[in-house]
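Hi! If you just cloned this repository, the fastest way to understand the data is to look at a raw example. We've pasted two of them here, unedited. The first protein comes first, obviously.
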Amino acid sequence: MAGKKKTTFAKMNREAKVREKRLASSLRKEQRQRDRAAGVVVEDQVEDLSHLDVEFVEGVIPDSSVNR
């Protein structure tokens, strides 16, 4: 006899999301390793925080080129 299914759809959706996130992360990691092996230099991209409605974001060094 088969027992009653005890896993909810919400839990299955959460688990699927975690699996997708892990897969995406591992793909990015593999791409970085391939780029590094090929000698490709990738510069970090500066995130634009001008859309935030605050003067100061903790842990972020202000860029003097941004005019407010």
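Ok, and the second one:
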Amino acid sequence: MAVEDPPAPAPPRQSEAGAGGRRADKHGRRRLEVYNEVLARLRSSSAAAAPAEISPAFEEALWAHFHRLPARYALDVNAERADDVVTHQRLLEEARDPERRPALSVRVVQVSRIIDEDMGDSIDPDMEMVASNHLPSQLVHPPPAFGSSSNLEALGLETSEGDVRSTNDTDHSVHLISRPMHEITFATVDKPKLLSQLTCLLAELGLDIQEAHAFSTIDGYSLDVFVVTGWHLGSTEELQGKLLQKFHKIEAQACPVSNRSSPSSQVQGGESMPSTSVEIPTDGADVWEIDLKLLKFGNKVASGSNGDLYRGSYCSQDVAIKVVMPERISADMYQDFAQEVYIMRKVRHRNVVQFIGACTRQPNLYIVTDFMSGGSVYDYLHKKNSAFKLPEILRVATDISKGMNYLHQNNIIHRDLKTVNLLMDENKVVKVADFGVARVKDQSGVMTAETGTYRWMAPEVIEHKPYGHKADVFSFAIVLWELLTGKIPYEYLTPLQAAIGVVQKGIRPTIPKDTHPKLVELLQKCWHRDPAERPDFFEILEILQRLSKEVGTDTEGRHKAKTGFLSALKRGR
């Protein structure tokens, strides 16, 4: 049973903070420091949002605000901007009222940095901080709430000549670069695909996301902050009106029947669902409904936001049982479950996880597959924490390509290809798994719904543009890079920051200098901005097989040496 987050403790006294009266880990101490700094600034009345009197009730509510948000909020927020913290607190409180959701704030913000002519093009991060701290008079508008100019710089923030103003001191000629933007803050009920809806909403208004921060509270709400450019059609108030109009339109399309309950009641009551079973299209050619009397549950292997994975047996066969938790299910999840069963029952390939059957009668919603005793490629990559030798990389990449080539030949787009969804059996064969968001292409061959995981996602998917099977090729390139480096893609950016960089700045993971030239070429082709320039998996297979012959690796068999990645799997069992 999951342990719920305890109620927020009473706010600590200032005297306790300095004396170390509150024992906390590093993040807990940082949360406390930021809370005390914000409180001190509000007491000094330097903040416009400061209440007339800082009462014990206000102190308690402010501490509860920090406590309901993840520690990352305190680490990221600009504590000097106490007004912003109070605004976030107010918006989250307003979001409790169904009639006021989403609670929304829109304002103009400004990002500035200093360029010293004597220093050339290089920018000292410390100098940039000095600029923001010591030149407030140069700023017409406040900075973003999360003080993230360094992140904006990392994403290659562009400036025009009109954004540059010169200042002079006795020693240097200094240029102040400033660029007005809009900061949009949403607070509403947290739910699956909310972030997707919000980014889609902004894109429809022609806004380019330069920076984003998303937080989920412990009581079921979401606080999402975007710094955007591209609004030239009117005032800030008009932008806010357009955002609300678009938000309610998207909500109405997603949920035809309005649900104005609170997060807690949604969890308890759920959405309106089919009363007996999930309807799976069938051609009558196969029988896949599992007999529950023959299904035996073993140990829990993993847990996710929507359900749990168990090891078990069915008719004496070792199986994996994916359990969709009834209390967590939504209409979208029902659709994904039905689609996954529909797709998996039709696929049969050595490099695709084998479907055994499913239970579709509520409350028992299960998908049963072969059990992959080798675990996921992700686990082995990041537990081992090192790059692998070229022969092992080529063999794993070939297995993935064979499975994906088969899926594409059968008009199936996976849409969430990443190392977490690549599993290994006892014979070290890598297989494509998890078809929860996979879809069968229609006759046009294009799709428009955004899905998947940002770090592996193709730019056309991030941008909510029509896309086809080449989106999986882009994801494969990120997987191949992961195999080469043993690192998480864009590890120093949040997933949303990575997505912004991929789309707007064309960033890609840095390829190691010692990578084989033909693999470098393959990576660059596969993650090309234009899907038409990417190879399909049949071509990728040919490239990998030629390269394998060149380096003396047999991709059809298993490497006999007892060293490297694949042998480590055997030793780890």
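That's it. A detail worth noticing about the second one: The CA atoms of residues 87 and 96 lie 15 Å apart.
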